[in-house]
Amino acid sequence: MFLPEYLDWHYHQCWLKIIVLWRNLSLFPFYYFSVPHHLKTLFSPWKRQLVSMKPGFHFDDFLNVVFFNLFSRIIGACVRTATILYGLTAMLICFILGLIPVLVWPIIPFFSLPLYLSKKPHPKEEAKYLLTLSGRNLKNLALILFNHEEGRFVSSRLGLDPTLVHNYFAREKDTGDFDILNSRLAGKNGSVFLSDLFLYLSESYRPLQSLLEEKKLKNQDIYQTALWFEQLAALVKTPLLFDLQKIKSLPGIGAEWSYGYTVEFDKYAQDLSKHISVFPYLVGRENEVKEIERVLLKSEGNNALIVGEPGIARHILIETLAHRIKIGACPQVLSHKRILSLKMHSLISAKASVNEVKGLVSDILQEAEYAGNITVVIDDFDKFVTSQDNRVDFSDIYSKFAESSVGFIGITTPYAYHRYIEKNPSLNILFEKIDIVPPSKEIVFTELKLSIVPVIEKKYKIIVTYPAISKVIEDSDRFITDIPFPAKAIELLDQSAVFLVSNKKSYTLLPQHVDLFLEQKLKIPLGDLESHEKEKLINLETLMHQQIINQNEAIKLIASSLRRSRLNISSPNKPIGTFLFLGPTGVGKTETAKALSRIYFGKEENMLRFDMSQYQKEEGLERLIGSAKSGLVGELSSALRDHPYSLLLLDEFEKSNKEIFNLFLTLIDEGYISDSLGHKINAKNTIVIATSNAGSLYIKENISKGIFGSELQQKLIDEVMKERIFSPELLNRFDAVVVFTPLSEGHLKEVAKLMLQKLNNRLMSKEISIAITPELVNKLANIGFDQKFGARAINRVIAEEIEDQIAKRILSNTVKKGEEIQIEI
């Protein structure tokens, strides 16, 4: 079999490539020197330099015009003719030189044998070759695979040391059952690649399965990581001399001679084809780039309006288009186009008045029109098409030139488009809107693997693992709420890499490093549960009862919700927990919320408190979410944006109006609100607690009748719906409606002790304390047994009488350090 395969390789595969290379090498000078283009434009004026006659006939003017225009064409013809001759000469030389290997190769068989023996197997054949090399032994196959270049990549990108993996399999005595692997291979349709071998081996060889289980990895992790290596290898571009289509699409030498100068325009513009993007590939967004190409190819109305949120890769799409034109990857019609980004702010600052600026804009666009190959990119397009809100209106100028040879690409946001551009009929006719939406997680994952990670690894000299990329996608989606994909994933990956390097933790980025970074940044627990945190979650009810007296049902429901959220069991598309607390004043509703904030978020300051009685008027909704018309910033939207990991407490919730109820319906059910600009604000990492005194008398009446627990809860829900305080739709959205019952005298004594102990904690810094005596506790409990204010009365007495007594004694120097003060009220 060896000889036929070698002869096929020598006479068929290699000779055919040499012939293709000879053809392309011969044609390369033809297109590189732009011979077809120069033949078409042979007598065109040099750089479109022509002059026109003044009004009326003047013989000297006529001679000047004829002479100048003729001279311009002669210069153009001479330079183009010379270029054509250079191209044809180079073409002839390449043709003759390339013919030599074409003729020699068939008559030198066996001289190529060393090359044949050293060549790497084709990816479609490599798996078959390694299977043969393993001798039907799974241990050998594992050693061969993980010693292979792809295997070392797989090991390192799964967070494993390639040397340790080799030693692990070398020590292994289990050779495995090859028939199991063979049965999986038999079920594979089409070619078998190394990534398939990694997957089938992980499903067939027990020692590899044990290794993956120990490292908390899945079979799909090893398969996808191997596939990642193969995808990166596939990105290696075909050499130019093997791609005739790309050779034909090259701009070539002198293509710009047929187009005019843009001296003034270039002062205020950036040539995007010369701008080097940080990330070399735009993966999964080819459809958007081709959509822009389609608009620019139109004979009329070749103006595109890119509409999308910042962070969605709007600018990178245009940079990619410019790069594609430069390397000849676009349709040939676009090969001579220059994509120039016009710096409008520089233009505006260059002149003293708006009219002067308009004159300058008109002049440079006229220069671009005369050049004939300019596509103008205008960022923040909405700022320059209306005079509203301190903007400058150039829409009449844009409309004039948008119908000429100048192509425009405007960039704006959905909100700005609807507010400023959509209402302009002339712009809507001349510009075709292209909506850029956030890419899916799958596309972002691919973009990170193939485009972003190689740059990050090179920049920070680290290795980014496959599980770390998965973690970045998951956590950026959950915790970064103010920017869309892919920007937020790229930002989190970059910040995690900086965190890894700056803390010198490792040179391999693992999922736990992403969690550690976010824990420090957000001050919330993430990652695998430590033993102390497991204990806290298990004993959450006990911890809360140390701060809250009675209210067993409320504490039980809250603790259950927190456990589900921390273990990622509850729905990820809703807030951590949503509760409606119903009960009289002074029974612990607000104190429960404070305690929850202290326990879950670490401090009471993580509680966002809104008194809904202050938002009853017509402007209440605008105060909460803002107003686009007046520019008012929303209090609730700002608070959630600035503190996305917090407890949101809505006091006196029943006083909200219908519009505000509808706002909270969305928040409770879908985990977000929309501000006045239409921006979604994520509230999925928020605990929402609404409190209300609704039904307080009804609660007391039923308790006096001996009705408690779930029966009381259901009767109260029916009562508030009957009284139309809350709608069934709203009540059903909450995770739980929790009834807070009035405190008994015994409960009030416990509350009094707790409040006094908190006072002693505050006095520790002054090295004094108060004596918590049964008499003091009883007096406070009697005061607190107030049917109107409940435990709040105790708090008031402590503040007004006890704290005041202590303050007077400190000021009069009648208390010593370490003294236990006796209090009388």
TrEMBL record:
<keyword id="KW-0143">Chaperone</keyword>
<keyword id="KW-0812">Transmembrane</keyword>
<keyword id="KW-1133">Transmembrane helix</keyword>
<dbReference type="InterPro" id="IPR001270">
    <property type="entry name" value="ClpA/B"/>
</dbReference>
<dbReference type="Pfam" id="PF10431">
    <property type="entry name" value="ClpB_D2-small"/>
</dbReference>
<feature type="transmembrane region" description="Helical">
    <location>
        <begin position="84"/>
        <end position="108"/>
    </location>
</feature>
<dbReference type="GO" id="GO:0016887">
    <property type="term" value="F:ATP hydrolysis activity"/>
</dbReference>
<dbReference type="GO" id="GO:0005737">
    <property type="term" value="C:cytoplasm"/>
</dbReference>
<dbReference type="InterPro" id="IPR003593">
    <property type="entry name" value="AAA+_ATPase"/>
</dbReference>
<keyword id="KW-0547">Nucleotide-binding</keyword>
<feature type="domain" description="AAA+ ATPase">
    <location>
        <begin position="300"/>
        <end position="440"/>
    </location>
</feature>
<keyword id="KW-0472">Membrane</keyword>
<feature type="domain" description="Clp ATPase C-terminal">
    <location>
        <begin position="743"/>
        <end position="825"/>
    </location>
</feature>
<keyword id="KW-0067">ATP-binding</keyword>
<protein>
    <recommendedName>
        <fullName>Clp R domain-containing protein</fullName>
    </recommendedName>
</protein>
<dbReference type="InterPro" id="IPR050130">
    <property type="entry name" value="ClpA_ClpB"/>
</dbReference>
<dbReference type="GO" id="GO:0034605">
    <property type="term" value="P:cellular response to heat"/>
</dbReference>
<dbReference type="InterPro" id="IPR027417">
    <property type="entry name" value="P-loop_NTPase"/>
</dbReference>
<feature type="domain" description="AAA+ ATPase">
    <location>
        <begin position="575"/>
        <end position="718"/>
    </location>
</feature>
<dbReference type="InterPro" id="IPR041546">
    <property type="entry name" value="ClpA/ClpB_AAA_lid"/>
</dbReference>
<dbReference type="InterPro" id="IPR003959">
    <property type="entry name" value="ATPase_AAA_core"/>
</dbReference>
<dbReference type="GO" id="GO:0005524">
    <property type="term" value="F:ATP binding"/>
</dbReference>
<keyword id="KW-0677">Repeat</keyword>
<dbReference type="Pfam" id="PF17871">
    <property type="entry name" value="AAA_lid_9"/>
</dbReference>
<dbReference type="Pfam" id="PF07724">
    <property type="entry name" value="AAA_2"/>
</dbReference>
<dbReference type="InterPro" id="IPR019489">
    <property type="entry name" value="Clp_ATPase_C"/>
</dbReference>
